[in-house]
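Re: the 273-residue chain
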Amino acid sequence: MLSDTETPLHELCAPREVVHYHREGSRTDSAMLLPAETPVALVYNGIAHGVMMCSAADLEDFAIGFSLSEGIIDGLHDIHDIERVDGCQGIELQITLANRCVHRLKEKKRTLAGRTGCGICGSESLEQVVRTLPSLPDSQRFEVTLIDKVLDALRPLQLLGQSTGATHAAVHVDGAGNILAIREDVGRHIALDKLVGHLCRSGRRDGAILVTSRASFEMVQKCASAGVEILLAISAATGLAVERAEQTGLTLVGFCRPGRAEIYSGRQRILLE
C-alpha cells in the first residue's frame, strides 16, 4: 500500500502572475496560488480503467474510495495492493484486486479520460449508474445546531482551499460535531471519494459527512455505498439526489449555512431545537 506521508502544500498548487482588477480603479500585479490538476490513471490488475484529474494528495484513499463508490469492490479486503507510479505525464495507481472483482470490473467499461469527474459520465448503461444498494440502518442522530460548529471549525482546516480558493472539501464529523477527517480536491466527487476511502480504512461509519458543494445524485450514492447515514451539503440538493436518498434511506440535508438547514429526507436522524 502507499505511504501515508502528507503531501506538502507547495506540491498541490503553483504560483502564477495575475492582474488583480478592482472596480474602484486600482490594479495590482502579483503572484497567486492556483491548484494543480494532475492526471491520475486507475489501473486494476493491469487493466486501464480511466484517468481522473485530481489533486495529487491522499491517493490511496482515492483509489479505495473510488473503487468502493463505483461498486468495483465490496470492501478493503478486496484490494491486495496499491502502487503509485510517477511519470512525466501524471500518476498511475496500479491497484491489485481480488480475482472475484476482476470479472465485475470488466463489465464496467468506462470512458472517463480527462474529467475532473464523478465516475458517472461515460457509463454505458443506466444499470451501471443506478446500482442496487442495501438500505442503510437507522443508527445515527445529529443535532441541527451542530452544523454551525462544524462550519466554524471547517475553514481553518481547508489548507488547499484557503491557499487557492478553487477546491472542495469533504469532512467526517462525529455525533458531537467534531471534525475527525478532511479531504480536499479540485473535484468535489474526488474529495468525497478520498474521504470514503479513509472511512473504509478506518472502519468508521458513524456521524455524518459534510461536503462544500451541492448534493447531487452521485454524491448521495457514494455516501450510501460507504454505509454513511447522513450527508450534509453547503449548497442545494438536486431532485434525483433526494430520490436516491429516499431509496437508500439516507438523511440528506442541504443549504447548511449558519443558523440554516434544509432537510430533504431521513428527517428522523436530525434533532431539531
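The chain has eight helices and 14 strands.
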